[in-house]
Amino acid sequence: MNPETKICQNCKKSFVIKPEDFDFYAKMKVPPPTFCPECQMQSLMMWRNERSLYKRKDESGKEIISIFSPDKPFKVNGKDYWWSDEWNPLDYGKEYDFSKPFFVQFKELLERVPLEPLFNRNAVNSEYCNHSEDMKNCYLSFASIWNENVSYSRGAMKSKDSLDIFFGNKDELTYENIGCEECYRVFFSKFSYSCRDSSFLINCSGCQNCFGCVNLRNKSYYIFNRPYTKEEYSEKIKEFDLGSFETLKKIKSQLEEFSKKQIYRYAHIINSPNSTGEILYDCKNCKWCFDLVNNSEDCKYTANGGFNLKDTYNGYGVGEGELMYQAIDTGLGTSTVSSVVVLRNGRNVSYAVSSYGSSNTFASIGLRNKQYCILNKQYTKEEYEELLPKIIKHMNDMPYVDSKGRVYKYGEFFPPELSPFAYNETIAQEYFPLTKEQAVTQGYKWKEPEQRNYGITKKPEELPDNIKDVDDSIIKEIIQCQHISPPAGGCNEQCTQAYRIIPDELSFYRRMNLALPRLCPNCRHYQRLKQRNPLRLWHGKCQCAGTKSENGAYDNQTNHQHNGNHCPNEFETSYAPNRPEIVYCENCYNSEVV
Ligand SMILES: [Zn+2]
Ligand SMILES: [Zn+2]
Ligand SMILES: [Zn+2]
Ligand SMILES: [Zn+2]
What we know:
Blueprint: E1 4-7, E2 14-17, H1 19-28, H2 37-45, E3 54-57, E4 63-66, H3 79-82, H4 102-112, E5 120-121, E6 129-130, E7 132-136, E8 141-142, E9 145-151, E10 154-157, E11 160-169, E12 175-181, E13 184-187, E14 196-202, E15 208-214, E16 220-223, E17 226-227, H5 230-236, H6 245-260, E18 263-265, E19 269-270, E20 277-284, E21 289-297, E22 303-331, E23 334-344, E24 347-356, E25 359-365, E26 371-374, E27 377-378, H7 381-397, E28 400-401, E29 407-408, H8 428-431, H9 436-441, E30 479-480, E31 498-499, H10 503-512, H11 521-529, E32 538-541, E33 570-573, E34 582-584, H12 586-592
Parallel strand pairs: 5-7, 6-8, 7-9, 9-11, 10-11, 11-12, 13-14, 14-15, 15-16, 18-34, 19-20, 20-21, 21-22, 22-23, 23-24, 24-25, 25-26
Antiparallel strand pairs: 1-2, 3-4, 16-17, 26-27, 28-29, 30-31, 32-33
Residues 542, 544, 567, 569, 584-585, 587-588 line the site of one zinc ion.
């Protein structure tokens, strides 16, 4: 089969379907998509509300925490009840109706079946976590697994006693790190591995007692990439009091200037042959993938996941499985599933929300260990196999057309109009940020900030500059997020307007000598998000001009394979062409960073 160029229904840009893509769609028994990969990812994300949590009543009138705000037309069960056998999701099933489009019927089912309030299994004293599992003593942490005493984090794994992690693995006593692994007492650092007692590191590994360093390997007592003796270091480091908010600001801008003169590898791709994307560790044949780790193979347009993930397209938050297509938060021994939102251990499942241990189901919500169901109605195997092709044909004969004229036939993911969430409640806002006007113009829902009556007791400018001057009474204060005070005057970052300092958090800041944050947890998350590259690739060229970088800001320390000539290497990179970073190819980067 030849590659085919198509025009995306949504953004009207062209995209190419390659021969191997056709093979994948054939295996999944779905037609090729009519939306481009980026628009597919965006519409998947509109179904994933990670951090907009609400207090509401469940079906029995009990107060619960849920991702479904009380103003929405959904029924929600409490977590324990939802997981019990005291109710049966099949009681809400209905016969398929050939007089109306499939997605209209799915929408009705969504408003009929009591929904899972949030996704937070095996939580111990961690009720404010979502899309998470096995969390102990954690607070406001999302998309995280196997953590203890970890708060305000996103994508934390196997970590302990840490705050404000954004993608971290096996970290302990860390704060404000992005993409760090096996770090201990490391703060404000990015993409650094196996480091200790250090702060403000970028792309370092094996470092101890380093401060403000970029691209160092196995070094100790370095400050802004300059070596010091142990004694000099102890003296010099006193200038950088992380307990002072003003000092932190100065260090951040100093590091920003310094890091502009350093080089960056075109991508964080490690041990991943024949792969393109960003943050790929131990992957094979993964294309246009992001944040995948641990034996991922033959995946495309997929982000955030891994762990023996095979043959998967357009997934977000996926692992342990194969043949998944358009899937959110899916895994644990899963095979052949498409258009699913939160699914574990499923086989031959399409169009499902909250599906556990089920197989051969179509259009289901909340099913556990069921087979041969359509729209939550039980059929025999024979009935199921007879009915399903008729429904698929009906989906094509009577497709759903949304308010913007986008057409959804069999194989397309759920239309955004059906999503239980507003655009700005979901991670679509994180990776494809829109203003209210843009979202509404594109036919997406928008949620106005809750009129919260917090009774703010402290303005950010009233907080003591230094943690040593912070009184115990701070835990009683309701602090206004700096983003809603002038001059910032509001942001588009799911700002909760106010926040508290919890007792464990205060003792962490004191023990580690760290200034109090001035932003609410959501705004803090969005600031970290801005420091990573987008889920997008551009074709780029190595910026090594022979003996220095193209812009002259970095002088090479070694002779490269291409000698004095400009490096000829090209690559796919998530650094947009107009970015300030000096981007080197793998060879040139490795020649410099040893
Ligand atoms: Zn598009
Ligand atoms: Zn805020
Ligand atoms: Zn190069
Ligand atoms: Zn070079």
